[in-house]
Sequence to fold (291 residues):
Amino acid sequence: MQQAPHRPEVKAFFHADTCTFTYVVHEGRAAVVIDPVLDYNAVTARTSTASADAVIAYVHEHRLTVEWILETHAHADHLSAGDHLRDVFGAHLAIGRGITQVQARFKTLFGFGEDFVPDGRQFDRLLEDGDVLHAGVLDIRVMATPGHTDDGLTYLIGDAAFVGDTVFAPETGTARCDFPGGDAARLYASIQKILALPAGTRLFLCHDYPPVTREAVAECSIAAQQQNNVHVKRGIEEVDFVAMRTARDATLAPPRLALPALQVNIRAGRLPPEEDGVRYLRLPLNRFGKS
Ligand SMILES: [Fe+2]
Fold:
């Protein structure tokens, strides 16, 4: 008889400014952190670790040992606190191997010099489909789910799946596919892999964009996605999904923090090196988005 999967504790932190979920997943003392956020004020260009501090407080309160910081992908909507938390926790930081393609593409956009090497060295581990990481009693299985980006991963930990930017809450649908490296047909295939997981799998979402009538909801069942997801419920074929996604993406503006976020996140969340004691972000003019 097959053993029931672990049912790890999952603590969700909702970052209201960017509608992003950060997760602490733990069993016993072992923990991993998924998609931590570094606060960034686009008007003043001030960063803050207030949101990461809440994660740190939770970890200390529960006397956890964080072994891995995991990114589901190179985020374009928020800055990552991955580098900060790996320092604080002495943990390793991992992302999909596809990050090298994202780095190469955006190194060109941002005009980074030779000191930025787009080979993933900024991270401690580059992950591929089928890889397994360990944190105490927890096994973390890696499933490649590209489409929103080249490097999209889903992390399977016991009965929980952290799906990154694939499906959102059923009434919201799915992630956009119009960033460089995005591909709606690939996203459709990735979502089918997620929906084929065991029926009892808890899906934990990367974002929620709740209407004012409800709170943000982090967790969803596979059945709810199959029955109600407005973009990919049962019966919607790939060709229809791709047509819908392509038409919808043509109407979307880039995320508000895309330029600051991408240049920091391809550095694994490390802020740019100091020049004269100050760190500067770059804003390439007339190179990004639609004219
Ligand atoms: Fe994303």
User: Anything to note?
Assistant: The chain has one domain: 9-255.
